[in-house]
Design brief:
The chain has 286 residues and is of the alpha/beta class. The chain has one domain (32-188, 230-284): 3-Layer(aba) Sandwich (Rossmann fold). The chain is built from 7 helices and 10 strands. The strands form 2 sheets. Strands 4-3-2-5-6-10-9 form a 7-stranded mixed beta sheet, with helices on both faces. Helix 1 runs parallel beside helix 4 (119-129). 43% of the residues are buried. The structure holds S-adenosylmethionine (SAM). S-adenosylmethionine binds next to helix 1. One of its GO terms (biological process) is methylation. This is Methyltransferase domain-containing protein. Pfam families: Methyltransf_11 (PF08241).
């Protein structure tokens, strides 16, 4: 791990991504605010969307709803409720990527809208379904919808791991949900931040403090962030939900299933059988 780089002055969030910036990036832990994180992650996902969809598209499926690398499927989990109750529901998917989950929701008779920061990720949705799922390019921290527009919201590793101010996203989700609405989101399990992000045995030894919230930042040789992830402890995540005004109903920690022999970055059968990799928060708006 590198030492933190020079202090970075964030560029405007609308600035176009530079396709060359992460060729020489180095990883570090340092502060990264809302604007810098959004700018870096928009650029990273635009540059890496094609490779990401090639690498993970088969596992994700074009119209499957998977909550994370363990492969927990909404068909069995029913965290958004029984499938038959999804008919006619307005659903917002946040950080939708290629909108695989939205496509599954549409197949159940729901009316999904897929939102993502990355234009290139959303283009993969168009490639798959030629525009069947409505798409919105926006930041999860400023949802471009009227109050009470949705019955349900969901996010499978979308936005929440990447934003500097997750409570702001949760307040926005609460605002656009109707009373009685539900929001379910998955993130990297907080305990994983104490271990190296490696699928093998080296990923089983604690090397960092679980309590160190300093963001993981990949930066170019001028200290500009080109990718950012934000760590929250389990308690932080619970607090974010509660202070946003949502009610926490459940925290699901999917166990690694025997059928899944596939590695996904630092997620592997070896580690998955020993430590949790994903945390799924089920929240409701009263
Ligand atoms: C790991 S992907 C998850 C997408 C999909 N569920 C999947 O499994 O492929 C994370 C997505 O979050 C999006 N994202 C990151 N930060 C965001 C933000 N602030 N607002 C909206 N989307 C964001 C990225 O562009 C990316 O498409």
């Amino acid at each position: 791990m590198q030492e933190p780089g020079p202090t970075h002055v964030p560029a405007p969030a609308h600035e176009d991504a530079d396709p060359a910036v992460d060729d020489e990036s180095t990883a570090t832990r340092r502060d990264a605010g809302t604007t810098e994180s959004a700018r870096a992650n928009r650029g990273w996902w635009d540059r890496n969307a094609d490779e990401y969809q090639v690498e993970h598209g088969t596992f994700l499926g074009d119209d499957r709803f998977v909550w994370g690398p363990e492969g927990l499927d909404e068909v069995e989990a029913e965290l958004l409720g029984p499938a038959e109750e999804l008919v006619g529901k307005d659903v917002l998917e946040i950080g939708a990527g290629a909108a695989q989950c939205s496509r599954w929701l549409a197949g159940q008779g729901a009316r999904p809208v897929a939102l993502d920061l990355s234009h290139r990720q959303l283009q993969h949705s168009l490639r798959i379904d030629e525009g069947r799922v409505p798409l919105v390019q926006a930041d999860a921290g400023a949802l471009p919808f009227l109050d009470g527009s949705f019955d349900l919201a969901c996010s499978a590793y979308g936005a929440l791991p990447f934003v500097a101010d997750p409570a702001r996203v949760l307040r926005e989700v609460r605002r656009v949900l109707r009373p009685g609405g539900r929001f379910v989101f998955s993130v990297t399990h907080p305990v994983r931040w104490a271990f190296p992000d490696e699928p093998g045995p080296e990923g089983l030894t604690v090397t960092a403090s679980y309590f160190d919230r300093t963001p993981y930042v990949e930066q170019d040789d001028e200290g500009r962030a080109v990718y950012v992830e934000h760590h929250r402890t389990l308690g932080d995540r619970v607090r974010d939900v509660v202070t946003s005004g949502l009610r926490l109903v459940d925290v699901v920690e999917p166990e690694w299933p025997a059928w899944n022999t596939q590695e996904w970055g630092g997620w592997s059968p070896l580690r998955g059988n020993l430590i949790p990799g994903t945390a799924i928060f089920v929240c409701e708006r009263d």
